[in-house]
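Structure tokens please, single chain.
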Amino acid sequence: MQTLSLTGANGLSEICIETGLLNHAGKAMLDVFSPSRVHIVTDSTVAPLYLEKLTQQFDLPVSSTVIPAGEEHKRLSTVEGIYHDLLAAGMTRKDLIVALGGGVVGDITGFAAATFLRSVSLCQIPTTLLAQVDSSVGGKTGVDLAEGKNLVGAFYQPRLVLIDPDVLATLPDATFADGMAEVVKYGYIANPAILEMVSQPDYQAHIGDVIYECVKIKRDVVAIDEHDTGLRMILNFGHTIGHAAEKLGNYTELTHGQAVAIGMVAAMRLAALRGDADLSAPLIVLLQQLGLPTELTHDREAI
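Here you go.
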């Protein structure tokens, strides 16, 4: 097992990366938490794969909420539904909320945990590559509004993050590629060795090492700037234009990773127009090799 720790405003966050970790995730959580009840939030895609498996690992009451899959459901109305389920289950501030799923589930559940009864302990179990390398770590939680992405939220660190690379085997190729956009981001902003790793034909055989390197970068950045007012903005590479593209597509035309890929290329080109070296060509080659789009599909003025 590879472990990392991060000390944030609401305490210590432990991050564990291990192949097969989901098989004993319940024990891993009870080694850290002492809840009377556990509530798992997941979505309609992940629930059939892992919800029962995780539920059976606890010898205490476990309840759950299954939300519809998709960014278009990352709304305050979904959070309110989680609140009602938490109340119906008798959850208290001493209990544990678990986010089991990808980035949308993690963001929504994190926000619910941060705000229900003014905060309940949170464990993140990311099941997509994007969530494992990025969104499950660092404490950004939130939901979208009609006006834009992630406009309501909170900084709330999970006490524990459990990352099992094995679950990536169930991902469709497009969903795996979605996460690779964030991996490439880390390579460009901090560690070029990551770009070398994922350029190899067999890089998926070493995906655990890729995840660790990405999470380590995020841990280091967040430790310096938890609330995104300085250095942490480097993690938004590709996201400014990417978020605009997501919104213009009503959060259904482009996945988050696809939008970030397009946004990174656009940001590179803007940098070149401002006088920096134009590094967009190798970025485009790598993104296309990984199955990601590289060109804006919306009018520049609209973006």
